[in-house]
Amino acid sequence: MTEPQRPDRDVTAPDLAAAGGAATPAALGPPVVPAGDHGHRSQWSDIWRQFRRHRGAMIALTVFVGIILFVSVGPLIWRIDPTFVDIRARNQGFSLAHPLGTDQLGRDLLARLMAGGQVSIAVGLTAMIIAIFLGSLIGVLSGYFRRLDAPLMRMTELFLALPLLPLLLLMVTLFREPLSQNFGSAFGVFLLIVTAIGATSWMQAARIVRGEVLGLKEREFILAARSIGTPAHRMILRHVLPNVMSPIMVAATLGIATAIITESALSFLGLGFPPDFPTWGRLLFDAVDQMVLYPWRVIFPGLLISLTVLCVNYIGDGLRDAMDPRIRGR
Amino acid sequence: MLTFTIRRLMLAIPTLLFISLVIFLLLEASPGDPLGDVPLTVPPEVRERMRAALGLGEPWPVRYLLWLKQFFWVEPLYWTDRWFGTSFSDGMQRIVSFQSRSPVFDVIAQRLPQTLIVVGMSYVVGVLIAIPIGIVSAYRQYSLFDQIGTFISMIGFSMPTFFTGVVLIIVFAVNLQWFPSVYDTTLVVRDWDSFLAQARQMVMPVTVLALYNAAQISRFMRSSMLDNLSQDYIRTARAKGLSERKVVLKHALRNSLIPVVTVIALGLPAVFGGAIITEQVFRVNGLGQLLISSIYANDIPMVMTLTFIFAILIVVFTLIADILYGVLDPRIRYD
């Protein structure tokens, strides 16, 4: 193992660690614990300690966990089928049987919000994973291999110049039918939306990662690793990737937020999931026609989208502050 | 600087060509058929002739080149003819919409003012709100104003515009009945009353977009201002005995505006894209609404042209941002 030796590893005062981090912002290695080193603080526990100081981010994390529990554990407790049509109980207000009322077909809104949240958050997470994977791959490749740099960055610029929302709308409308036929209506659309969002939102991550890798390449431990003949793939996986983890994590967090907003925007334009398949954006879209009579049906899904995105943004802010002490408080 | 501009312009051409090819191939790969609505009773040979009339008979490279020629050659010629009374474009085929059978650019010219008014207004309002907020937030960092400002701008760009729009409609159009919920595009401003009506119907869409833009720009303004306020030259200015007002508004603000101006330029095409949703919420029949309705109707020439115009906007404004940055900040050297 040729791990970078960091001077701030054994310093106990957190502020000193922060100052050390300020001088060497990219020196965030993997939390490898050398044998026999007791009382050692790993990088992630450092970050966690910093993160906990960010009050907004901590509140956001709590609320976000709450939302995740609401959509994942909620349906196990509130067992009404979100697609169950009860035409006699339609357009009801708040009651014990339906705490948030029912929609125009008598479907329980609480159950639909839970089911919709599952889809929305699943779309956000999956699209983010695709975008981050693509972004890190292209960023690392173009930062590490000089020959690939120019073509890959040209490609990134090309993608940045694409009009994303119109293209997303196009892709979804054009390919919804064939994919639904091949993979089933819900899963086909899920696949389509997730790949479409992922394939059009990796560029920022790629640029950030490339910049970090370029800076990292000049450092001594990379030179040391190279001098003992480490092959390129191991260099990247062992030495480069762990050290660019923090910007990737921040980009990933913020990516969830944009993916959730994009999915709900598509649903809102009527180009998202099929009508009987609730997502938060779709619930909002369905309720807009009757917002004069039943405004809360618009408000609840909208609030959940906004709250989730707000939480994710705050968590991203806190993470960035915790990982990069230079920009704390900006 | 000039060589840089020229080099970037040369680079913009292949970029735009590539983007147009991507959009064209995407549309080409689509399974949708513009003749899908034609009844099945129409005999096949008539159907073939209809395809040929729509220009669908040729292989795709030919159609792509034809579109390029129409977009970059015929349309500019047509508009020079319109404006200068010449007749260069006589007998040339313009890009024609499948849906309305009228030239695509005529429809766009009809829809453009609505989008420009709403989007332009909202961007101006957003910038005007954002810059003072950013200045005060940075000058009084961690004050109550800064905390509240940060929180509101976080909310501002977390709330999707379709939700803020709908909430504004519920509160101000349905409950309070202050503003109309639907944008009336047939309204012509003739006198004071119609001007007031126009202003009233613009309030909500402009507010929605302006809030969203202001949230982002004020963050940039704040962090750029913070960067500059801690610089040595600010201390020098204070040491010289300049008034605080002069230090902040003259020395710090001017330098802080440099990155913000480029952010504003970079953000403008995204605002056009984002306006698609706002236009849908308030039923403004601008470019965004045109795009969505032509996507639904499988109107390939219209979709292709509109999407490409969005792409041109992005490329042009990126270029403008780069050049502005070099002009405003002499430390930036491109050569």
Name the overall outline of chain A. Answer: globular
Strand residues, percent of chain A: under 5%
The oligomerization state is heterodimer
Radius of gyration of chain A: 23 Å
Terminal CA distance of chain B reads 8 Å
Largest sheet of chain B: none
Biggest sheet descriptor of chain A: none
Q: Quote the distance from N terminus to C terminus of chain A.
A: 37 Å
Mean pLDDT of chain A: 78
Order of secondary-structure elements of chain A: HHHHHHHHHHHHHH
Shape of chain B: globular
The chain-level structural class of chain B is: mainly alpha
Radius of gyration of chain B: 24 Å
Describe this structure as you would to a colleague.
The complex is a heterodimer of chains A (330) and B (335). Chain A is mainly alpha-helical and 330 residues long. Chain A has helices spanning 14-23, 43-53, 55-72, 74-77, 109-144, 146-160, 164-183, 185-199, 203-217, 220-227, 232-240, 245-268, 280-288, 295-323. Chain A is globular. Chain A starts with 13 loop residues before the first helix and ends in a 7-residue tail after the last helix. Chain B is mainly alpha-helical and 335 residues long. Chain B contains 11 helices and no strands. Chain B has helices at 2-29, 44-53, 60-84, 104-139, 144-158, 161-175, 192-229, 232-239, 244-282, 287-296, 300-328. In chain B, helix 4 (104-139) runs antiparallel to helix 9, helix 7 packs across helix 9 (244-282) and helix 9 packs parallel to helix 10. The longest helix of chain B is centred in the C-terminal third of the chain and has 39 residues, at 244-282. Chain B starts with a helix and ends in a 7-residue tail after the last helix. Chains A and B meet through helix 6, helix 7, helix 12 and helix 14 of A and helix 1, helix 5, helix 6, helix 7 and helix 9 of B.
